[in-house]
């Protein structure tokens, strides 16, 4: 009896391992852009490395937008290059979201992830099907020494840090 239990337990463990290594059941990888297929991770919460992969792979794509949803003062203190700003605490945040193109792919981030979780739920309710949410926000991004730019979005500025080896 113990041998049969161990055998089934081992088979179940192997199946779980295969699912974890293979990614999602729909074929989308979990570790960022798949170099061979060019697939992006599933929409929703993504790690800083996955976000970096998305940003690099979507660079120059007019169907992609990077949104920093922090206050203008927070943005000036350090933001990801190429971001646009919609202030989550601004009086017109939801109206500003409604004006965005629902066909675009969005990667949103805030300081720690709290505001983006709320904003992603709001975007989902408004009919945005393609939204990535940077897990841990810009704090997690900075902790890995990924590029951060100081100053206002529309000014010339130097960005320190570097993307991971992709």
Question: Can you describe what's shown?
Answer:
It is a single chain. The chain has 166 residues and is α/β, with parallel strands linked by helices. It has two domains: 1-26; 31-160, 3-Layer(aba) Sandwich (Oxidized Rhodanese, domain 1). It has six helices and seven strands; from the N terminus they run H-E-H-E-H-E-H-E-H-E-H-E-E. It is globular, with a radius of gyration of 19 Å. Mean pLDDT is 80; it is low at 1-32.
Give a summary of the structure in a few sentences.
This protein has 166 residues and is an alpha/beta fold.
* Main β-sheet, spatial strand arrangement: 1-5-4-2-3
What name goes with the CATH superfamily of the largest domain? Rhodanese-like domain
Helix/strand/pairing category: alpha/beta
What string gives the helices and strands in order?
HEHEHEHEHEHEE
Strand content: 5-15%
Based on the structure given, which CATH architecture of the largest domain is correct? 3-Layer(aba) Sandwich
| Number of helical stretches of at least 4 residues | 6
Q: What is the domain tally?
A: 2
Estimate percent helicity: 25-40%
Gross morphology: globular
CATH topology of the largest domain: Oxidized Rhodanese, domain 1
Distance between the termini: 49 Å
Supply Rg. Answer: 19 Å
Low-confidence residue ranges: 1-32
Broad CATH class of the largest domain: Alpha Beta
Largest sheet: 5 strands, parallel
User: How much is the average pLDDT?
Assistant: 80
Number of strands: 7
């Amino acid at each position: 009896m113990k041998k049969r239990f161990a055998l089934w337990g081992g088979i179940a463990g192997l199946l779980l391992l295969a699912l974890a290594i293979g990614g999602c059941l729909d074929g989308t990888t979990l570790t960022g852009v798949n170099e061979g297929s060019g697939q992006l991770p599933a929409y929703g919460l993504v790690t800083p490395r996955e976000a970096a992969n998305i940003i690099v792979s979507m660079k120059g794509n007019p169907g992609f937008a990077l949104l920093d949803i922090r206050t203008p003062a927070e943005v000036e203190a350090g933001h990801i290059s190429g971001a646009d700003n919609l202030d989550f605490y601004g009086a017109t945040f939801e109206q500003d979201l409604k004006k965005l193109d629902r066909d675009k792919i969005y990667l949103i981030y805030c300081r720690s992830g709290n505001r983006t979780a709320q904003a992603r739920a709001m975007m989902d309710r408004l009919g945005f099907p393609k939204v990535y949410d940077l897990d841990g926000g810009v704090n997690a991004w900075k902790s890995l020494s990924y590029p951060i730019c100081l100053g206002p979005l529309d000014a010339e500025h130097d960005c320190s840090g570097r993307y991971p080896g992709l």
